[in-house]
């Protein structure tokens, strides 16, 4: 088990090049000119950073790794947190934006919302009422070019539609239940530029290291063969 307190952590050092040509050392250089020497390097930047070529690798990334960089999609998306009054009792998990999107059998977009108080902030139970959720890929495309106020109104309209029936509103929801919000727009973060990669319909190549084990590309939460 690694004791992270004993690891020398360096922040605010944007990496621009990784030279792993030497048989015994890897040289990592940052935008401000600082450089570091190691025996190996683990690359954990988002796929978008690799796609945009922000980091120069010497030699070039192996063919298998470069295939994944070039062929895997990088979804846009955002996460939302809404606070409502405590009269509203949301479902444990639910979809206010329809199920997942597919094209020719391939997943292209996801959406989910959940009772954030129940699952993530139980100390708020009875005092605050939080709902979290996200829109990713083609689901997020429906919010394209909207400002934050417009995004909030669109999400709230989906809540209103979901928690209503022919007799009015359900589960204690009312249009004025909403109190405040937080929108985390991953696309606007310059070091993320999206959410996470979509599946590769041709199958995951599985290449995450060079043949000398000098450089390793971190994976994601979802397993092969598609992710």
Structure characterization notes:
It comes from Corethron hystrix. The chain has helices at residues 47-51, 63-71, 116-120, 138-141, 148-162, and strands at 15-19, 26-30, 35-38, 41-43, 56-58, 77-84, 93-94, 101-103, 106-115, 129-137, 164-165, 168-169, 178-185, 215-217. The relative contact order is 0.20. By secondary structure, it is α+β, with helices and mostly antiparallel strands. It has two domains: 4-73 and 198-217, FAD/NAD(P)-binding domain, CATH 3.50.50.60; 77-188. Helix content is 17%, strand content 30%. Strands 6, 7, 8, 9, 10 and 13 form a six-stranded antiparallel beta sheet that branches. Strands 3-2-1-5 form a four-stranded mixed beta sheet, with no helix packed on it. Strands 4-14 form a two-stranded parallel sheet.
What is the total number of structural domains?
A: 2
What spatial form do the alpha-carbon principal axes imply?
elongated
* Fraction in beta strands: 25-35%
Order of helices and strands: EEEEHEHEEEEHEHHEEEE
N-end to C-end Cα span:
27 Å
* Count of alpha and pi helical runs: 5
Secondary structure: helix percent: 10-25%
Report the average pLDDT across residues: 90
Low-pLDDT ranges: none
Structural class: alpha+beta
Biggest sheet overview:
6 strands, antiparallel
How many E strands?
14
Radius of gyration over all CA atoms, rounded = 22 Å
GO molecular function: oxidoreductase activity
Pfam family, one: Amino_oxidase
Organism: Corethron hystrix
Protein name: Amine oxidase domain-containing protein
């Amino acid at each position: 088990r690694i004791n992270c307190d004993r690891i020398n952590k360096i922040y605010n050092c944007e990496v621009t090049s990784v030279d792993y040509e030497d048989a015994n050392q890897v040289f990592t250089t940052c935008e401000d000119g600082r450089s570091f020497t190691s025996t190996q390097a683990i690359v954990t930047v988002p796929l978008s950073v690799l796609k945009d070529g922000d980091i120069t690798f010497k030699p070039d990334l192996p063919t298998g790794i470069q295939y994944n960089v070039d062929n895997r999609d990088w979804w846009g998306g955002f996460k939302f947190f809404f606070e409502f009054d405590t009269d509203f009792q949301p479902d444990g998990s639910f979809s206010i934006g329809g199920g997942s999107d597919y094209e020719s059998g391939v997943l292209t977009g996801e959406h989910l919302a959940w009772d954030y108080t129940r699952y993530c902030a139980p100390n708020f139970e009875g005092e605050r009422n939080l709902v979290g959720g996200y829109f990713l890929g083609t689901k997020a495309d429906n919010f394209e070019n909207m400002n934050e106020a417009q995004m909030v109104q669109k999400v709230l309209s989906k809540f209103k539609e979901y928690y209503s029936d022919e007799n009015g509103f359900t589960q204690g929801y009312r249009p004025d239940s909403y109190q405040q919000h937080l929108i985390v727009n991953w696309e606007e973060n310059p070091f993320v530029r999206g959410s996470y990669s979509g599946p590769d319909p041709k199958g995951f190549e599985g290449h995450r290291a060079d043949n000398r084990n000098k450089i390793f590309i971190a994976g994601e939460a979802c397993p092969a063969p598609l992710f």
